[in-house]
Design brief:
This protein is mainly beta. The chain has a domain of about 110 residues: Sandwich (Jelly Rolls), CATH 2.60.120.10. The protein has one helix and twelve strands; from the N terminus they run βββββββββββαβ. Strands 1, 2, 3, 4, 6, 7, 8, 10 and 12 form a nine-stranded antiparallel β-sheet that branches. A hairpin with a 5-residue loop joins strand 1 and strand 2. The chain is globular and about 60 Å long.
Length: about 180
C-alpha cells in the first residue's frame, strides 16, 4: 500500500474563527439594480476568508428579493450552497439545501433571487474574480423583471487583488 505524502505542518499557524456579527467583517454591497417599482435590490457579501497564497475566498451572501446577477464564471472552481430563500440559476430553482458546483471554466446564470431573497455560503478555490458570459441572457432577465442594473459600487478589495469588474462591459466571451 502506498503511503500518502507527508503533511507539511506549520506549528505557527492556527485556525481562524469568524462569526457573522464580527465587526471586522462588514457587509459589502456588491451589485445593485433598480426594480420596476422604483425600489433597489442588492447583493450583499461578508468576505469571511480572503487569502492571497493560496488564493481563495469564502463568503456569506445575501441577495435582496428579485435581485438579478448576470451569467458569469470565475477564474477558479466555485461552490455555492443555498442556506435560506431561493435562488434561480438560469431556469433551475435552487431551494435551501441546494449545492451548486461551478467547475473552473464553467458559467452559470443569470442568477435571480426569489421573492424572499436568498442567503448563500460560497467558496472560490483560487482567483475569485469573475468573467461575463452571454450578456443577452442578463438583459432578457432584467427586461422580464422590469429592472435595470445600477453602476458598480466601490468594493474593499485586498491590496493584492485588482478590481476587474469594468472588463465586464460588453463581454460576450469568457476571458482567458
Amino acid at each position: 500500500m502506498t503511503q500518502p505524502p507527508p503533511i507539511p505542518h506549520d506549528r505557527g499557524r492556527a485556525p481562524v474563527f469568524r462569526h457573522l456579527d464580527d465587526p471586522d467583517v462588514p457587509w459589502q454591497q456588491c451589485k445593485r439594480q433598480r426594480n420596476a417599482d422604483g425600489s433597489e435590490s442588492s447583493v450583499w457579501e461578508k468576505w469571511l476568508a480572503f487569502s492571497p497564497d493560496p488564493q481563495y475566498l469564502s463568503l456569506y451572501a445575501r441577495y435582496d428579493p428579485g435581485m438579478i446577477v448576470r451569467r458569469h464564471g470565475h477564474h477558479s472552481p466555485h461552490v455555492v450552497f443555498v442556506l435560506e430563500g431561493e435562488l434561480w440559476v438560469g431556469d433551475r430553482r435552487c431551494p435551501p439545501g441546494t449545492h451548486v458546483e461551478l467547475p473552473h471554466g464553467a458559467a452559470f446564470g443569470p442568477l435571480r433571487a426569489g421573492g424572499e431573497g436568498a442567503v448563500l455560503f460560497e467558496v472560490m478555490l483560487g482567483d475569485p474574480r469573475s468573467w461575463g458570459d452571454r450578456p443577452e441572457l442578463f438583459e432578457q432577465a432584467l427586461a422580464d423583471a422590469g429592472a435595470e442594473p445600477l453602476p458598480d459600487v466601490p468594493l474593499d478589495f485586498p491590496p493584492w487583488l485588482e478590481d476587474l469588474r469594468q472588463q465586464w462591459q460588453g463581454a460576450d466571451e469568457p476571458s482567458t
